[in-house]
Amino acid sequence: MRDRLAIITATLAGAFMALQYFVTLPVANSAYRAILSWMQIIAAFAIVVGVFGVIRLHLERIGRKRAGWLYSVTLLAGVLVMSILGFAGGIDRGTSFQWIFDHWQAPMQSTVFSLLAFYIASAAYRGFRARSGESVILVLAAIIVMLGRVPLGEWLSPIVPNVSDWILNVPALAAKRAILIGIGLGMVATSLKVIAGLERTYLGGR
Amino acid sequence: MSALNRRGFIYSRIAIAILICLVTALIPAAVLADASSSATAAAGWFHSSRIAELVGIVIAVLVLAIAALLVKRGKRLQLRSLPALDAVGDALGRATELGTPVLYSTGWGGDMGRPTTMASMGILAEIAKRAAEYNCRLLFPSHDPLIVSVAQETVSQSALAAGRPDWYRADDISFVSQSQLGYAAAVDGMMAREHPGAVFLRGSFEGGALILAETAHQTGALTIAGTDSTIELSFFLVACDYTLIGEELFAASGIVAKDPAAAAAVWSQDWLKYLVLTLLIVGAALTATVGFNLFQWTAK
Amino acid sequence: MGPSRRWIFAVVGVVAVAAMIFRPGFPLSVGKETRHVFDLIGSLDSSSIVMISFDHEASSLPEVGPLGSAIVDHCFREGIRVVGLALFSEGTAAGYELINRRARAAGKS
Fold it and tell me: CB contact, 8 Å: B181 with chain C?
């Protein structure tokens, strides 16, 4: 019964959202905006649920001294310190919360982000190493596009950025659009499945 | 719900969807009829500029309905095979032999309302079922608490379906961080500590995709990916062992479901693709030969 | 980690550090897309509002921050009001801080 109610709700909500796109009635417009607001409110509550879930999980790991329980201590200390600093002193410029954000969190995140430079190089190496006709085209296109995106390319020849632009705007874009059309159709099929009650993965596979 | 009742319920939902689309299709027809007699009538309560989209939706619903009817009449729909799906068995077998867990991620950025996440959950259900049969541990870190709830329910149902309810560990399906790079760092750490034999990256991905794929490769895992992000797709194609490209992710979800209704959806998706392909060819030919732009005409 | 990957990582590291130390100077020209965006903002009248979405986190500040600064500065030069928004909570803080900083620099705070 509970599942049936959820499916009927999804069918009605999905059909309404599809319908409101085609009508200009003020009532449909305001209902649409109300649904969007409710979605935001529910999503905000979900964060609270998530945070409590994380705290419970890591308290349990510490309690049972599971492998890597010290990481759990670090995580909980972070949650506790940032919450206290945020609630007590605020999050504006000049506060301790902001100082930790600027001097700890941002550099740590930037460090993870900077790994991309190394990972792109190693992934590209593996991609280029494959001895096939496709990999030769891949290498050539990559060299031209990379040169065309940096000042060195233009310094070598003004043709390089133009060829780079052509690769990006013609063959690459054509392939991208073909993939996007497929994705769009996949999304349409999935959405119709939700409206028709065929897609029930959001219920947890019941 | 019995299979018969469930099927009846499914077709009644399709009937409702078709009814809704047909009713909405009649409205623009009425508006257009008014427009021909009075120029101002078209500015009524219907977006007359969106008729092309409406026609597209009606066609999509009709194709899905035809597929559902064929299934109902007992026709066995021929579905394509996907190498990235066929490799799932090998990946799980490898992890089981090595005595390592497998890691499944629906990515970062998508929520439960996104079709990509729904498709990924469909694949998770099948992988979890097989992992339970093999007694292979499954790790599922997520950036979204709602996805965690749905995944816990999905995996526990799969464990039940496999006859191994004891295999399910709720702790292995956890929320880690809503921050993109925080999520990537947490999953990387998990891979470095647990050394999963196989890593499944299927869903919405953004900047952290390559970090996850390369770490998985470095830790020796077999990586099977799939995403609807065209930017991250290029990273997956070079960094992963198998990749579901774009719509293959949606098709894969239907193929693994082994459900006639899901098969009908995959079949309809393929036929819609042929239809779009035909339209593109006809449109390009009309523009090149007689200078008639079909797409501008439909946008009017 | 295989030996080939070690070498790749070493080469990337050396090139990145060398570029920071020696700072090789190549002529830098403004691309078509950049010119188009700036011309578009320049063509707006002063009553217009430009909405800028700071859809990034602290991690990509070094990459996206200067981009945001350049657009916000250009809007302020043209006397156009700016509205910032973000999909990520960190983006809200980063955008808020950036707009305030550039507004102070432009004498508009």
Answer: yes
